[in-house]
From TrEMBL:
<dbReference type="Pfam" id="PF04851">
    <property type="entry name" value="ResIII"/>
</dbReference>
<dbReference type="GO" id="GO:0016787">
    <property type="term" value="F:hydrolase activity"/>
</dbReference>
<dbReference type="GO" id="GO:0005829">
    <property type="term" value="C:cytosol"/>
</dbReference>
<feature type="region of interest" description="Disordered">
    <location>
        <begin position="272"/>
        <end position="291"/>
    </location>
</feature>
<dbReference type="InterPro" id="IPR013670">
    <property type="entry name" value="EcoEI_R_C_dom"/>
</dbReference>
<dbReference type="GO" id="GO:0006304">
    <property type="term" value="P:DNA modification"/>
</dbReference>
<feature type="compositionally biased region" description="Basic and acidic residues">
    <location>
        <begin position="281"/>
        <end position="291"/>
    </location>
</feature>
<keyword id="KW-0378">Hydrolase</keyword>
<keyword id="KW-0347">Helicase</keyword>
<keyword id="KW-0547">Nucleotide-binding</keyword>
<dbReference type="InterPro" id="IPR014001">
    <property type="entry name" value="Helicase_ATP-bd"/>
</dbReference>
<dbReference type="GO" id="GO:0004386">
    <property type="term" value="F:helicase activity"/>
</dbReference>
<keyword id="KW-0067">ATP-binding</keyword>
<dbReference type="Pfam" id="PF08463">
    <property type="entry name" value="EcoEI_R_C"/>
</dbReference>
<dbReference type="InterPro" id="IPR027417">
    <property type="entry name" value="P-loop_NTPase"/>
</dbReference>
<protein>
    <submittedName>
        <fullName>DEAD/DEAH box helicase</fullName>
    </submittedName>
</protein>
<dbReference type="InterPro" id="IPR050742">
    <property type="entry name" value="Helicase_Restrict-Modif_Enz"/>
</dbReference>
Length: 918
C-alpha cells in the first residue's frame, strides 16, 4: 500500500468509529450521516472527505500521509474547500462549510470556521454527527443518528434497525419488523430505543408487552442493554420502569401491557400489588371468550397525545387492532414499531404494509439461530374416528363452572366424533394411550442414543384444550410414568400444570427453564407465545389449533438454540439439541395452515446530465424542475425499452418485484405533480424540498434500485438468475421423509465431482476411503443442512423403506460411526441394494483378513490390528502416521512388531478389506 492509502485506512476507521458512513459519490443517499470520498468541489477539485448531515455539508476532512505534519499549506487547502462548496450541495450556512478537519492517520486537527480567528486544536478522536451539530449550534430531527456498527448484531437485527431509521426519516409513522422466534426482537427494541433517545429529539419511549411475565423479561433486557457509546448499561443512562403504579409513567422508558396503559390514560389508579397473575388470567379468559367490545377513550384523558415519541409493540399480531386500537391511535405523534414472528392481515394493515424486515423461521434455521422441527405422529382410534358411549355405560358428569360431579348410566348409545374429544367428552384412556405411546417413543424413536434415565426425559411442553383437560393430563402422566421409577411414583415436580389457575405461573416457567426435576409442563395458552424456554425439546399437541398465527407461536416454543453445556445442566443425559420434536396426537400438523402474506398496495427539460451524475445531484437535494424532468424522461425511456421485451423484459419484472415500483412509476409521479401544479417552487438544495424529494425517494433512497436502473440503461448481453435451495424438514411421516431423501440425493448428485468421497463411490474407484475424506463429507453435509447427520439420513431411508432393504441402525454399536456415510452414499448411488452398516459382519471379515494365505500374523500382531480395525470400521481408513496422532502407544507397538514400511502397508490392506461393500 502507498503511504496515502495506509493513512486513509486509519482515517476511515476514525470516521466510522465516530458514526460516519463512508460512501463514494455515487452511493450517497439522502438523510444519512455520510462522509463522501473524493467529493466534487468548485473548480473541478475534490475534497478527500465531505461530511453531510441532513443533506447539508457540515465538514471538510483533508487527509494526508502520516509523514505530513499538517501545516499551513494543508490548512489553506482545506479552508479553501470550506469556503467554496458546490452550488448544488445543501449547506448549513450560505457559501460556507463550517467545520474543517486535518488528518494523517495519527493526528487529527480541527477548526470551527464560524470562529475565523480561532486556532486549530488537536483531537483524540473524530467528532460524531451529534457533536458536530452541537459545535455549529444547529439541531436536526434525525441527522445526528450515527452509522450503525454491524458487529455483534444479527443480519436481521441490523437490517431492521437500518430500515426502521430510514422509514422514520421518510416520514412513515408505522413500521413492522417480522422476526422469527429467537432472533432477538427485544434486543432490537432496546437498540431502537437507545438510538432515538440518545441521538434524536425523542424524550420518552413506551414498550408494550403482551403479558406481565413478558414485561418482566423485557425490563431485565432493557436494563442490562449496554450497546451504548461507553458500554454503560441503559439503566444507568435512563430511568426504566415497568408500569405498576401511577408514578412509573414518568420514566424515560415505560414498559407496560396495553391494559395498564389504558388504565393510566383514563385516570384509573394503579396499585403496586402482586395480582398480576390474576390480571393475566382475567385477560386470557376474555380473549378466549372472544370479547371484542371496542375500547372507548372518552374525553377526559390524563396523558397528552405527544407523551411518547416511540411506541414499540411486542407480539403485535395480537388484538391491538380491534379492541385496543384507540389507545395506540391516541398517541398519534409517536412512531410505532411493531415486532412479531407471525403477522396477521390486521397487523399488515395497521402498519400500512411498511415492512422494515422479514426474517422467517426458515431463515433462522439456516443461520443457526433456531433448530429445525421434526414431526412424530401419534394416532389412536378415538382421536382419529371418535368413539361411542354405549347404553348402560356409567358416566360422570362434571360442571366446568363448579366442578361438581354427577354419576349416571347412559340411557342410549352416544356417538361422538374426534372434535368432541376432551371438550364435551373426556376419555381418560385416550389420554393414557397417547402418553404411553409418547413415553415408549422417547428412548426408542426420538432419542435412542441417550442413556435411558426417566428422571431426565427431554423437557416437554404439552398443549391441552382447557384447564380441566390439563389437569387430567397431569394426573394420567403421573400414572403412566410412575412405573419407570423404583418406588412406583414420579418425582414431586416431574410433571406440573402451567395455566392461569396455577400458583406462581412465572415461577413455574422459570423452573421449567432451569430445574432438572421439572420435565413435563402442561399448559393451555399461557406458554404459547413469547416465552423463552431454550432447553425445551418436545412440543406435544393434545389440542388442535386452527389459528395459523397461534399454531406457529405454539410450536415455536421448542425451536430455540441452546449450548450443549447449558442443555446438559438441565438434561444431563443429553448431548446436543440439533432439532426439536413436534409430537402430534391430534392431527394438528396435517390441517392446512397458511401464514398470511402482505398485500402489496398502493414543457420537457433538456438532457443536460448523464443518468449517473443526475442521480448524484438529486441525492444531494438538487431537485430542480430541470433535474426532475430529466429523471422523468430517463425513467420513461428505460421502462419503455423493457416492456414486452422477450429477451430482457425479465429485468423490468425483477426491478418491479424487487423494489416494489417501476421506473414508469417515478415518471408518472413527476408528470402528475406538474400537471396538477402540486409542487412548491424550487430555490436551492439547502432549502426544505421534501415534497419534491418525496416524488423520487423510492429510487433515490435505494442504492440497489439506482444501480439496477443504471444497469438497465446500459443494456445487457445475457443474464442468469440463481434458483436458491429450500430448507426441508425431516419427519417421521413417509411424505416428509421422502422429501428429505429427495433433497439429500439431489445434493449427492450435485456434488459427486467436488467431494472426494462422493467421487470415489460414484465412479466405483478402487481407492480406500479415509477418515479425513469422511470428515470432509460429514462437514459438507452438515454445512448444507444441520439435519444431514448419518443417523437422520439413515432414519429417513428406514421410514420410506417398503421392501426391507434398510436395516435398523444399531444405536449402541455404531450410532455415530462415520463409515455409515459410506454405506448411505453407496445405497443412494444404487451401488448397494441394501443399506447395511459396515459393522455388521465386521468380526467375520476381520477374521478372514487375518487368515489370508501367504503370510502369518502373530497373536500380538492380530491384537494390534484388531484395535486399529475398531477405529477403521467406525471412522475410516488411516495411515500409520495418523495412528501416531490418535494412539501413540498402539503406533509404537505396531512399528516394533511389523517394522515401519510393513506396518503402514498392512493397515492399508486391512482397511481396504474391511471397508469394501458389504
Amino acid at each position: 500500500m502507498l503511504p496515502e492509502e495506509k493513512a486513509r485506512v486509519k482515517i476511515d476507521r476514525q470516521l466510522t468509529n465516530a458514526g460516519w458512513d463512508i460512501v463514494s459519490r455515487d452511493e450517497y443517499v439522502p438523510r444519512s450521516a455520510s462522509a463522501v470520498k473524493e467529493a466534487l468541489m468548485q473548480g473541478n477539485t475534490e475534497s478527500d472527505y465531505l461530511l453531510f448531515v441532513d443533506d447539508k455539508a457540515i465538514a471538510v476532512v483533508e487527509a494526508k500521509r502520516e509523514e505530513n505534519h499538517l501545516g499551513g499549506d494543508v490548512q489553506i487547502q482545506a479552508e479553501d474547500y470550506a469556503c467554496n462548496p458546490q452550488d448544488w450541495y445543501g449547506v448549513w450556512f450560505p457559501n460556507q462549510i463550517p467545520l474543517v478537519y486535518l488528518a494523517n492517520g495519527n493526528k487529527i486537527y480541527f477548526k470551527n470556521m464560524l470562529q475565523p480567528d480561532s486556532e486549530y486544536i488537536e483531537l483524540n478522536e473524530m467528532h460524531s454527527p451529534k457533536k458536530m451539530l452541537k459545535l455549529i449550534g444547529q439541531v436536526s430531527e434525525y441527522g445526528a443518528l450515527p452509522r450503525l456498527d454491524k458487529r455483534g448484531l444479527r443480519d436481521c437485527q441490523y437490517r431492521a434497525e437500518m430500515k426502521f431509521e430510514e422509514s422514520i426519516k421518510n416520514g412513515d409513522k408505522k413500521s413492522l419488523a417480522i422476526l422469527a422466534t429467537g432472533s432477538g426482537k427485544t434486543y432490537l427494541a432496546c437498540l431502537a430505543t437507545y438510538r432515538l433517545l440518545n441521538y434524536t429529539n425523542a424524550k420518552r419511549v413506551l414498550f408494550l408487552a403482551d403479558r406481565n411475565n413478558l414485561a418482566k423479561q423485557a425490563k431485565t433486557e432493557f436494563c442490562t442493554f449496554n450497546r451504548t457509546e461507553n458500554q454503560e448499561e441503559m439503566s444507568s443512562l435512563y430511568t426504566i420502569e415497568r408500569l405498576r403504579k401511577d408514578s412509573d409513567i414518568k420514566a424515560d422508558i415505560v414498559i407496560s401491557t396495553i391494559q395498564k396503559l389504558f388504565a393510566v390514560l383514563t385516570g384509573k389508579q394503579l396499585t403496586d400489588d402482586d395480582s398480576e397473575d390474576a390480571e393475566d388470567e382475567k385477560n386470557a379468559v376474555k380473549e378466549e371468550a372472544e370479547e371484542s367490545k371496542t375500547i372507548q377513550l372518552g374525553d377526559s384523558l390524563f396523558l397528552p397525545s405527544d407523551y411518547f415519541q416511540l411506541i414499540i409493540v411486542d407480539e403485535c399480531h395480537r388484538s391491538i387492532y380491534g379492541k385496543w386500537r384507540a389507545v395506540l391511535d391516541y398517541f398519534s405523534d409517536a412512531h410505532v414499531l411493531g415486532l412479531t414472528a407471525t403477522p396477521t392481515p390486521e397487523a399488515y394493515a395497521f402498519f400500512n404494509y411498511n415492512k422494515v424486515e422479514e426474517y422467517s423461521y426458515e431463515d433462522s434455521v439456516v443461520d443457526g439461530v433456531n433448530v429445525p422441527s421434526r414431526i412424530y405422529r401419534i394416532k389412536t382410534e378415538k382421536t382419529e374416528h371418535g368413539g361411542v358411549i354405549d347404553e348402560g355405560t356409567s358416566v360422570v358428569e362434571t360442571s366446568r363452572r363448579t366442578g361438581n360431579e354427577t354419576e349416571y348410566e347412559a340411557h342410549h348409545r352416544i356417538d361422538y366424533d374426534s372434535s368432541a374429544l376432551d371438550r364435551s367428552v373426556v376419555n381418560p384412556d385416550q389420554i393414557r394411550e397417547v402418553l404411553t405411546a409418547y413415553k415408549k417413543a422417547i428412548y426408542e424413536d426420538l432419542y435412542p442414543e441417550r442413556e435411558k434415565k426417566w428422571e431426565y426425559i427431554p423437557k416437554t411442553l404439552i398443549f391441552a384444550k382447557d384447564d380441566y383437560h390439563a389437569t387430567q393430563i397431569v394426573e394420567i402422566a403421573e400414572e403412566v410414568f410412575a412405573e419407570e421409577f423404583e418406588n412406583g411414583k414420579v418425582p414431586e415436580h416431574f410433571v406440573q400444570k402451567i395455566t392461569y389457575t396455577a400458583e406462581d405461573s412465572n415461577g413455574l416457567i422459570r423452573d421449567l427453564r432451569t430445574e432438572k426435576d421439572f420435565r413435563i409442563a402442561v399448559t393451555v395458552t399461557l406458554v404459547a407465545t413469547g416465552t423463552d424456554v431454550k432447553p425445551l425439546e418436545v412440543v406435544l399437541f393434545m389440542k388442535d389449533v386452527r389459528s395459523d398465527t397461534l399454531y406457529t407461536q405454539m410450536k415455536g416454543r421448542g425451536c430455540r438454540v441452546i449450548d450443549d453445556d447449558k442443555l446438559k445442566e438441565v438434561t444431563p443425559n443429553a448431548v446436543t439439541k440439533e432439532c426439536y420434536y413436534i409430537v402430534d396426537a391430534v392431527g394438528v400438523t396435517e390441517s392446512d395452515k397458511v401464514i398470511p402474506q402482505p398485500v402489496i398496495g398502493p414543457g420537457k427539460g433538456k438532457k443536460v446530465l448523464p443518468l449517473d451524475k443526475l442521480l448524484e445531484r438529486l441525492a444531494h437535494n438538487e431537485v430542480s424542475d430541470e433535474n426532475l424532468w430529466l429523471l422523468r424522461d430517463y425513467c420513461s425511456t428505460i421502462n419503455r425499452r423493457y416492456e414486452n421485451n422477450v429477451l430482457f423484459g425479465k429485468h423490468l419484472d425483477y426491478f418491479n418485484n424487487t423494489f416494489g415500483f417501476s421506473p414508469k412509476t417515478i415518471a408518472f409521479r413527476i408528470q402528475e405533480a406538474y400537471d396538477k401544479e402540486l409542487l412548491p417552487q424550487y430555490t436551492s438544495p439547502s432549502n426544505d424540498n421534501t415534497e419534491r424529494m418525496d416524488l423520487i425517494i423510492d429510487l433515490i433512497g435505494n442504492i440497489p434500485a439506482r444501480r439496477k436502473l443504471l444497469e438497465m440503461q446500459r443494456g445487457y448481453f445475457v443474464t442468469t438468475e440463481d434458483d436458491p435451495d429450500k430448507l426441508i424438514y425431516a419427519g417421521f411421516s413417509k411424505e416428509t421423509a421422502q422429501s428429505f431423501i429427495d433433497n439429500f440425493e439431489q445434493y449427492l448428485n450435485d456434488n459427486k465431482d467436488s467431494i472426494e468421497a462422493l467421487r470415489i463411490i460414484y465412479n466405483s474407484e478402487d481407492v480406500v476411503i479415509t477418515h479425513s475424506m469422511l470428515v470432509e463429507l460429514r462437514d459438507s453435509l452438515l454445512s448444507e443442512s444441520r439435519q444431514y447427520s448419518p443417523y437422520q439420513i439413515w432414519r429417513n431411508y428406514k421410514v420410506i423403506d417398503e421392501f426391507g432393504n434398510v436395516d435398523e441402525l444399531d444405536m449402541k454399536a455404531n450410532f455415530n460411526a462415520l463409515t455409515n456415510l459410506i454405506q448411505i452414499v453407496r445405497f443412494a448411488y444404487h451401488k448397494n441394494q441394501k443399506l447395511t452398516a459396515l459393522i455388521k459382519g465386521y468380526t467375520q471379515r476381520f477374521n478372514l483378513y487375518c487368515g489370508q494365505a501367504q503370510r502369518t500374523l502373530s497373536n500380538d500382531q492380530i491384537e494390534i490390528m484388531r484395535q486399529i480395525a475398531e477405529f477403521v470400521i467406525n471412522d475410516g481408513a488411516i495411515t500409520a502416521m495418523e495412528l501416531n496422532e490418535i494412539d501413540t502407544d498402539l503406533w509404537r507397538r505396531g512399528i516394533t512388531s511389523f517394522t515401519a514400511p510393513v506396518f503402514n502397508d498392512e493397515i492399508q490392506k486391512m482397511s481396504r478389506f474391511l471397508l469394501r461393500a458389504a
